[in-house]
């Protein structure tokens, strides 16, 4: 089916108290695995391409073309999202390429500058029918708002959302980027208060560090979009190591990338079902 608008995936999930998985694409095998997992689960999914991945590939267009093509060919709704973009030029390029949504990250700026920059992005994206996510503060792993003990203030979040007209907000509730263990402690009461205060979908960044049980609780408390990257990368890399250990003389990368892709597809299917309450 054609590329899905992100709002058409997130909106019904938010209204129905369900979670939606948003998984990061590093290379084409990730995108293939994520779409395959979504098709296996029979559930929508969001492919995310971060600014870090753009730097890795040297350009946005090639990995975007692959992801957009896979989304168009999928049998379930698939959106393609630009994650943690810090430059206006990259956002504009993603919009021109046909992305469903963008996450604009001006969190390093002072509050007033963050509001002004984010509002300009929102105005541009909304004219093109593109959904916008933003955040307050800097999400951890990169420390800032999601560092231990730092939390989003509901009143400030409400004012920020109103001033910027964003469609969703990433909030600091106890998770952190790039965690290698799934033991983050979320503030579930704060999630509920933020959901009630904002009236727009909430996004959980750093969800790789959150265990299954707490992911379910976070969705029940009010989270909708759940970003997962490191957890899948660990699985991908571990599977490659296992295959190379079994056959150290292998030269054909398909012999180890294929099993890694399959492992990620299976985990994506499982996580999507978990977030959807199955």
Molecular structure report:
The protein contains eleven helices and eight strands. The longest helix is centred in the last third of the chain and has 22 residues, at 254-275. Helix 2 runs parallel beside helix 4 (61-73). The two termini are 24 Å apart. It is globular and about 60 Å long. Mean pLDDT is 90; it is low at 138-146. The chain has helices at 6-15, 28-41, 51-57, 61-73, 88-97, 111-127, 154-164, 188-198, 212-221, 230-246, 254-275, and strands at 20-24, 45-50, 78-85, 101-104, 131-135, 168-170, 202-204, 223-228. An eight-stranded parallel beta barrel has the order 1-2-3-4-5-6-7-8, surrounded by ten helices. With 278 residues, it is of the alpha/beta class.
Topology:
Elements (H helix, E strand, L loop, with lengths): L5 H10 L4 E5 L3 H14 L3 E6 H7 L3 H13 L4 E8 L2 H10 L3 E4 L6 H17 L3 E5 L18 H11 L3 E3 L17 H11 L3 E3 L7 H10 L1 E6 L1 H17 L7 H22 L3
Parallel strand pairs: 1-2, 1-8, 2-3, 3-4, 4-5, 5-6, 6-7, 7-8
Helix pairs in contact: 2-4, 2-11, 7-8, 10-11
């Amino acid at each position: 089916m054609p590329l899905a608008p992100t709002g058409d995936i997130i909106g019904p999930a938010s209204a129905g108290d369900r979670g939606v998985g948003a998984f990061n694409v590093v290379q084409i095998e990730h995108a293939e695995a994520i779409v395959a997992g979504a098709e296996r689960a029979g559930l929508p999914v969001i492919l995310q391409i971060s600014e870090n991945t753009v730097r890795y590939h040297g350009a946005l267009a090639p990995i975007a073309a692959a992801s957009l093509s896979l989304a168009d060919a999928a049998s379930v709704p698939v959106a393609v999202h630009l994650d943690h973009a810090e430059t206006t030029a990259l956002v504009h390029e993603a919009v021109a390429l046909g992305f469903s949504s963008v996450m604009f990250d001006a969190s390093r700026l002072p509050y007033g500058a963050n509001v002004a920059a984010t509002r300009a992005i929102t105005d541009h994206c909304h004219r093109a029918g593109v959904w916008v996510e933003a955040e307050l503060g800097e999400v951890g792993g990169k420390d800032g708002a999601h560092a231990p003990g730092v939390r989003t203030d509901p009143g400030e979040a409400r004012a920020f959302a109103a001033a910027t007209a964003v469609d969703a907000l990433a909030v600091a509730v106890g998770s952190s980027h790039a965690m290698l263990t799934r033991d983050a402690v979320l503030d579930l009461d704060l999630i509920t208060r933020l959901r009630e205060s904002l009236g727009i979908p909430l996004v959980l960044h750093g969800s790789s560090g959150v265990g299954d049980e707490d992911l379910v609780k976070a969705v029940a408390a009010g989270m909708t979009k759940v970003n997962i990257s490191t957890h899948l990368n660990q699985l991908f890399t571990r599977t490659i190591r296992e295959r190379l250990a079994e056959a150290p003389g292998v030269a054909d990368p398909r012999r180890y990338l294929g099993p890694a892709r399959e492992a990620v597809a299976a985990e994506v299917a499982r996580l999507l079902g978990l977030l959807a309450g199955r």
